[in-house]
Structure formats: C-alpha cells, structure tokens
Write a structure and sequence with these properties.
seven-stranded mixed β-sheet; 9 strands; alpha/beta; Rossmann fold; binds S-adenosylmethionine; 7 helices
Length: about 210
C-alpha cells in the first residue's frame, strides 16, 4: 500500500467512526450518562497527587460525563473529542474547555497535563498509528504523569459496524505502552467481581517515564 493510500485509509477510518458518533450523539448520551465508571476515576486519581487541583485531559471525552465529575472534584479537566456534537455537549454539560481534535491529528502542548484519562477511546486508534499517538500523549504529560486507559479486550482489529476498533489483551497493550515510554503500575478487568470471561474491559493505569533526551 502506498503512503498516499495509507493516509486515505486512515482518514476514512477516522471519518466513518466519527460520523457514527456524530449521528448518534444524543442516543449515546442517553445510553451512557449513568454508566458507573467510579472505579476507573478512582484508580486514575489514586495514582496522582492528592493535595492539589490537577490538569486532566479527557481523551475522547464524549458528551462530558467524566469531565463533569473531575471538575466537581476540584480539578481542571479539559475534554478532547473528534465529534463536534460531543464537544458542544461536553462544554454545555461541564463548562470545561473541550478541544475539537482527531486522535490521528493531535495538537497538544508538551508538559501540559498531570494525567490523561482515556475511557473507551484508545481502542479506536489503528495499531499502526498507536505508537505515534501514545508518544504524543507521553509528550503532553508532565514528568511522572499518569495515563489511564480502559478498552474492550480481545485479539482483533477492524470494523464493528461503522466503528473501527483495535482490541488487545494485556500483553499486547503492555508492549505498546512500554514502547512509548510508559510503565504499567496497575491493571484490572471490569465489571468488578465477575468471572474473567464476563469481564470484557481491561483498565490500565500507567506512568510516563522520563525520556532520556
Ligand atoms: C466509546 S466513546 C467513549 C466516550 C467517553 N469517554 C465515555 O466513556 O463515555 C469513544 C469516543 O472517542 C471519540 N473518537 C473516536 N474516534 C476518534 C478519533 N479518531 N478522533 C477523536 N475522537 C474520536 C468518539 O467521538 C467518542 O466520544
């Protein structure tokens, strides 16, 4: 595949996936606004300093359920999403800045955040682009910053209806994270308390190691 075609394929992956969210923004909000993700928020915040308001990027913030929570807890969250409808909804719901950016075309400042929270979002990044995007998130974190991710588990990549996904188990996820300068400090499967084959989600808390250059 030529680089030109490769870029066209990646553009198509982003635009079809984002169109799906854009078209279904209201129903997505109704279906997810009451999801209990307190275990994820606690696991993320427990890895960060407790005594100060934190600069948090909610990567793929959707309609803003979690930036609203981070703000209510006294932090300074910023949302990021490629869906215009979600950016608007998240801003209206939380009052927080929401960046309209696509995962494959990020424009984030170096050392901007104490933590990046990626709930159900990183799996939308095609495998060939994941190292680059993780390196950009690493760069946007302050030294010792924390990346939280929660993704559906599996060993597959491709389309599920109109959404593109890359599904990984722990070993593969860990290899990508380590390659991009992260050290895993904690992981768990969700929902809590179920047998492993009934836990479709893998949550990982990792620390951005300082780069040598
Ligand atoms: C499964 S939803 C999760 C939303 C939210 N974090 C939550 O937990 O409800 C995935 C989110 O990633 C966003 N997204 C998917 N692909 C994207 C891309 N290429 N660039 C930017 N945002 C993207 C979608 O718009 C959507 O908000």
């Amino acid at each position: 595949m030529s680089i030109k075609n490769d870029k066209a394929v990646l553009d198509e992956i982003e635009s079809i996936t984002l169109d799906h969210y854009e078209k279904n923004a209201e129903s997505f909000w109704l279906g997810t606004r009451d999801h209990d993700v307190s275990q994820n928020i606690e696991a993320f915040l427990q890895a960060l300093p407790e005594d100060k308001p934190l600069d948090i990027l909610d990567f793929g913030c959707g309609p803003g359920r979690d930036i609203h929570t981070f703000k209510a807890l006294g932090h300074r969250p910023v949302g990021l999403d490629g869906s215009k409808a979600f950016c608007k909804m998240a801003y209206e719901y939380s009052g927080c800045i929401t960046l309209h950016q696509q995962f494959l075309k990020l424009d984030l400042k170096k050392d901007s955040f104490d933590g990046i929270y990626a709930n159900a979002s990183l799996f939308h990044i095609p495998s060939q682009e994941l190292p680059r995007v993780l390196a950009e998130l690493h760069r946007a974190l302050r030294p010792g910053g924390i990346l939280f991710s929660s993704n559906p588990r599996g060993n597959a990549e491709g389309w599920q209806g109109e959404r593109y996904g890359h599904y990984m188990e722990l070993e593969i996820s860990a290899a990508y994270l380590q390659q991009s300068g992260f050290k895993i400090i904690h992981h768990y499967y969700r929902p809590d308390g179920k047998p492993c084959d009934q836990q479709p989600w893998l949550a990982i808390v990792s620390e951005a190691l300082s780069s040598s250059c």
